[in-house]
Every structure is written in structure tokens, then in C-alpha cells.
Write a structure and sequence with these properties.
Elements lengths: L5 H4 L5 H8 L5 H14 L15 H6 L5 H8 L9 H10 L5 H10 L7 H11 L6 H7 L8 H5 L10 H7 L1 H12 L12 H5 L7 H24 L5 H18 L1 H8 L8
Bound molecules: zinc ion (ZN).
């Protein structure tokens, strides 16, 4: 039997009778909350009490019919966890699992106004999958190579396409550089946690400020790699570290928000 709102509306209906009549598998609390909800909201649904042909509630939940949203809200077990579309795609291109919390924090990163505009624009493009890596550009421009800039400079014979994941993390030219630079800010055991997932997503520590600071440091590492790619030069670990160090120092001096974040991050930050 398909439940409709009318099943809840009969005058003086008790839970026991409702269950016997409908065989519905819902507990008394849920029954009461649905009934209460329908009663409370019924004035906003035109002619609810006289509507003989209500869609079954199950269908109502997926429909856009007037009043259906109320039932979605009442009956949905938990609010549907929605990962923003851009991050769903980003997690595919980087081959990472990115949860709701991390996706929210990634989408918040480019909003921090202590970051310079170039970094913010870079992050926006990176997380919205519009960065001009060769694998992407080659789809739009005929004859444009899809190969990795660094691998070409190094004359590496493997055919490495320049996607986001390769360029920033798995390319031979950058893999040690990422580990070295991030490693300097982490404890010895924490260094084991540097991975594709933590570099593109979040470290998932309990302290939020630690996660955010690491996301920002990771963003500066990526920006450094990107700048090298654009200039057509090879990145180095020393240059990467000194670039990130300068960024931290300048931002620390100029932004109270960043100072507080870094100060409570528990990371090994010196300059
Ligand atoms: Zn490469």
C-alpha cells in the first residue's frame, strides 16, 4: 500500500489504527512528526483535505509538485549529503575521495582575502577544473601537446599526460618536492600522512586550523609548481621551500586571521 498524506489526516486517527490499516513500517515518533508536519503545513497546501488523488508519499518526495518539499523534509532520513559539483569532478581528476567537510573547506579556500589575487584565481580554477593543464588545453586547441611540461624538459620517455594529478603530485619532477616541503611543517610520524588525498583534499586532523593551514601551504606549493610550468622551468625543492616560507612570513606579518590560524595550528612553522 502506498502512503498518501490523506492516510495521516483522518480525524482522531491513532498510531495503532494507522499501522493496522496501512502496514506502514514507521515508528510512533516518526508517525507523530509526519502527522504534526502535515497538520502544521496543510494550510499552505491548497485544498489539502479535499485532495482525493494525492500521489503516494514515496513518489511525492521525488516530485516537484506543490507541497512535495514538505514531505521530503519530513521523511528524508537525513539531509542528503551533497558534494558540490565542482568537487565531485575535482575528486575524479585527482583520483581522491573527498567528503562533504573537505569539499566545503576547499570551496572556501579561494575566499581567504589574506591570499593574493593570483593565488586565489589559481585556486578557483584548480578546484573548478578549468586550469589550463596540457591535457585539458589539447582538447580545445588542435595540435597542442597533452604531455607533461616537466617530463618533456627532462626528456622522460614515458608518455605522461599533463593532468592535475600528474603535474602537481605524481610527476617525477615534483613528487619529492611535495613530500619535502610539506614534511618540514609536520612531525616525523605525521609525514607518513602526505599522500595524494591529503595534498589535494585535507589532512583530516582534529584541529581545524591545522588542516586549513596545511591546505594553504599545499596551495602555495601547487602555485609554485604552476608558476614553474608556465615559465617552462623545472621546479626544485629548495626554491619551493623558500617560496612557501616567504609566503608564510609575509602573510603572517600582514594578516591577523592568518596569524591566529597559524598560531593555533600546532605545526612546525618557523621563519
Ligand atoms: Zn611529468
Amino acid at each position: 500500500m502506498a502512503l498518501t498524506p490523506n492516510h495521516f489526516l483522518r480525524e482522531g486517527l491513532q498510531y495503532g489504527t494507522f499501522i493496522r490499516e496501512t502496514n506502514a513500517r514507521i515508528g510512533v515518533e516518526r508517525y507523530n512528526s509526519i502527522k504534526r508536519g502535515i497538520a502544521l503545513k496543510s494550510h499552505s497546501i491548497q485544498n489539502l483535505k479535499h485532495a482525493p488523488n494525492w500521489d503516494p508519499i514515496v513518489r511525492l518526495m521525488d516530485s516537484s509538485k506543490k507541497g512535495s518539499r514538505i514531505f521530503r523534509m519530513l521523511l528524508a532520513h537525513s539531509p542528503k549529503i551533497l558534494i558540490p559539483h565542482n568537487i565531485v569532478k575535482f575528486s575524479e581528476t585527482t583520483d581522491c575521495v573527498i567528503g562533504k567537510k573537505t569539499s566545503d573547506s576547499l570551496n572556501k579556500l579561494w575566499v581567504y582575502n589574506f591570499l593574493d589575487n593570483a593565488t586565489r584565481t589559481f585556486l578557483f580554477k584548480l578546484h573548478n577544473n578549468t586550469l589550463g593543464v596540457n591535457a585539458r588545453v589539447s582538447k580545445f586547441i588542435r595540435g597542442h601537446t597533452d604531455m607533461c611540461t616537466f617530463c618533456m624538459i627532462n626528456q622522460i620517455e614515458d608518455e605522461n599526460k599533463e593532468g592535475v594529478s600528474h603535474l602537481f603530485f605524481s610527476c617525477m619532477t615534483v613528487e619529492n618536492l611535495v613530500l619535502n616541503t610539506l614534511g618540514r611543517y609536520l612531525g616525523v610520524e605525521e609525514r607518513e600522512l602526505v599522500s595524494r588525498g591529503t595534498f589535494f583534499g585535507s589532512f583530516g586532523f582534529e584541529e581545524e586550523n591545522k588542516n586549513t593551514t596545511l591546505q594553504i601551504i599545499s596551495a602555495w606549493i601547487k602555485k609554485y609548481i604552476w608558476d614553474c610550468k608556465i615559465k617552462g622551468i623545472l621546479p626544485t625543492a629548495e626554491q619551493c621551500y623558500s617560496t612557501v616560507k616567504d609566503r608564510i612570513k609575509t602573510t603572517f606579518e600582514n594578516s591577523k586571521v592568518f596569524r591566529e590560524m597559524v598560531g593555533t595550528s600546532g605545526l612546525n612553522i618557523r621563519f
